[in-house]
Amino acid sequence: MGTRQHGDHTKEEIKQRYIQKCRTSTSSTIGIRLGGLQVYQANTGKYICHNKYYGRSLSLEGFKEALHQYLHNGHELRTDLVDPIITQLQKCAHFLRKKDTFRFYGSSLLFIYEGGVSDKQCHMSNNCQIDIRMIDFARSTHIGIHEDKTIVNNGPDSGYLFGLGHLIDLFTEIK
């Protein structure tokens, strides 16, 4: 998530690799890059799996297709999950807008949904089991976390919020 993946104290050589990964992927254009995907296909009893290298190669259109693939269980597109996903992403954005000086460089969003709940069950019980978690905080930082006073980050993490905004827009488009 976000437009920047390197931490404040990353060595220059490694920093340049992160910058290059962002520049040549959807991280630079929409603030999001697919880090992996696994979705159960009920029609075949198998999983579709994609790794981070697949995600790095995606264009915007490819990223949209990957979101569709994530929501498709082999029988139907799980549109019942879209509103709960958007709601959780909006809550995350609201929370992050209040986090002055925090930067979540290199962190990710983990999306998990219960594939056993059918579309009909979800609508009837309002029980669309989707869980979205922020993970991978190794390069995250905020004012006061280190003794180094040369790092100054004011306001919320605009790169992360940029990515969240696009993700909300993409799921809204699916809806």
TrEMBL record:
One of its GO terms (molecular function) is inositol hexakisphosphate kinase activity. It holds the Pfam family IPK. Its EC number is 2.7.-.-. GO terms for cellular component: cytoplasm; nucleus. One of its GO terms (biological process) is phosphatidylinositol phosphate biosynthetic process. Keywords: Kinase, Transferase. It is an enzyme of class 2 (transferase). InterPro entries: IPK, IPK_sf. The keyword Transferase applies. It comes from the Eukaryota. The keyword Transferase applies. This is Kinase. It comes from Mytilus galloprovincialis (Mediterranean mussel). Belongs to the inositol phosphokinase (IPK) family.
